[in-house]
Amino acid sequence: MDNPPDIVVKALDYAGQARAIGLSWATSPAAWSQFALLAVAWLLSLVIARRFGPRLSRLIGPKDGARGSIAAARRFALRFLPLLLPLLAYGLTAVGEAITRSLVGSGAVIAFGKRVFLLLAARSFARDILRDPFLRLLGRYVLIPVAALYALGLLAPVMAWLEAQTVELGNIRFSLAALIRGLIAGRLLFWLGSWSNRQSADYIKAQEELRPATRELAVKAAEVVIFGAAFLLLLNIMGIDLTTVAVLGGALGVGIGLGLQQIAANFISGIILLVEGQTTVGDYVELDGGEKGTIVRMTARACVLETFDGKWIAVPNEHFITTRVVNYSDQGSANRYEVPFSVSYDTDINKVPGIITAAVEALPFILKAPDGPDVELKGFGESGIDFAVEYWVSGIDDGRNKYASEVLFTIWNVLKAEGIDIPYPHRVVELRGGLPA
After folding, report:
1. Are 32 and 142 contained in the same domain?
2. Most CB atoms within 10 A, among 28, 147, 161, 228?
3. Domain residues for 382?
4. Considering only CA atoms, which of 419, 411, 397 is closest in space to residue 353?
């Protein structure tokens, strides 16, 4: 091939060097002795791992059914036992290399074997220890290839070639190696950030002495700090000058000024809601627009309401600041409700308040504080005399709670038991001039 690419020329050059090294090792008694030392190190490591591996497993592993942080740490350490064999071989080979170099002044073969054992350790780590799908993918397609290049002695030339290839985006310039490092490190950092964010959120939400609004604010602050630090660290790993980010910040400011006002307003409104704490997770709210439900999530953009029929409504945070919001507090707070009823005009209405009050007060969900049941005369209707009973309960009269229904059942039963009629609509028709023939 005339004028082959540089990478082909370098590959042929490395292949020639590998062939020459292989021939020299095949004809050298010193290389044979080093191969023998590698075999001995591997066999000795195999015997030690098989003999002491089960004992080490019993020593490290926790007892059956043990729980707690110590038991979890011991189970985590137990996962690294597959590394025992290759790491033992690596350590014994390192000792053999030191002895060989002191005796014959050469240890290229045994150094190569040591790198191969390190490759086997990387393969075992990616295959047997990593359990997270992303980490297994990273180990399979990044860790093992890098360990293979290191074992063959090609890692430094490959990295030098990648560093020589540059990518330019405006005034930002970085190498291909930096781009690959950034992709790998970025995915790893944001995976680690997501894991850290989940752990910190669980820890903060477990602090029951803090107000719910304070917990939500702390969770959001921790999320911003974690991912902000991950982003800055990623830029540093890629070798991008942080001063060039000022251009991006200016563009972002223009975008917020022109088209992202609502997003910025909702974000700031969300911070205000969390700081003030007047509306928080668990509150049952009703907005001017008709949306009502229990707040189950508060995000940077919106509050998520869950209605009693299972629907989720995302309400922008700005609506909680600029419109009227009725907050029934959480579902365990005291709320007052009113149930109307009527009796016939033949009833002694002086007996009605006492009868109904006693019956409603006997219901298990009726509260005596801040006030007990109260029966009021509302007026004289067309078909009967109108009353209403007011009562306090702990919760919202909707969804799983059917307070009004049980109160109405009680009113019906007690009125029937007392012989009091509940009127139905009726009319008196007067005919003038007599009946037609």
Report:
1. yes
2. 147
3. 334-417
4. 411
Are 45 and 86 in a shared domain?
Answer: yes
Nearest to 89 by CA among 42, 34, 40: 42
Return the pLDDT at 387. Answer: 95
User: Contact at 8 Å (CB) between 115 and 97?
Assistant: no
Token duo for residue 416: 């029937």
- Both 27 and 125 in a single domain? yes
Task: Choose the final residue of a domain: 258, 289, 309.
Answer: 258
In sequence order, which residues have a C-beta less than 8 Å from that of residue 320 and are 6 or more positions away? 269, 273, 279, 287, 303
320 & 182 share domain: no
Taking only the tens place, the pLDDT of each residue in 198-234 is 788 777 777 777 666 667 667 777 777 777 777 777 7
- 135 and 193, same structural domain? no
**Residue 15: C-alpha distances to residues 12, 19, 31, 137, 152 (Å):** 5, 6, 20, 29, 11
Residues 95 and 201 in one domain: no
Q: Which CATH number is 345's domain given?
A: 3.30.70.100
Residue 230 and residue 191: Cα distance in Å, rounded? 10
What pLDDT digit, counting tens, does each position of 315-369 carry?
888 888 888 888 876 555 788 899 999 999 989 999 999 999 999 999 999 998 8
pLDDT at 25: 57
10 and 124 within one domain: yes
Q: Which residues of 318-352 are buried (b: 16+ CB within 10 A; e: fewer)?
A: bbbbeeebeeeebbeeebeeebebbbeeebeeeeb
Domain count, the chain: 4
Asked if 113 contacts 93 with a C-beta cutoff of 8 angstroms, the reply is yes
Same domain, 347 and 320: no
Burial label, 370 (beta-carbon count in 10 A; 0-12, 13-18, 19+): exposed
Distance CA(121)–CA(90), nearest Å, equals: 9
pLDDT at residue number 358:
92
What single DSSP character describes residue 422?
P
Residues 49/51/57/60 CA torsion (nearest 10 deg): -90
List the structure tokens of 34: 């080093």
pLDDT at 59: 79
Ranges of residues in the chain whose predicted pLDDT is under 50: none
Q: What is the predicted pLDDT for the residue at 26?
A: 55
Domain boundary among the residues 294, 311, 330 is at 330
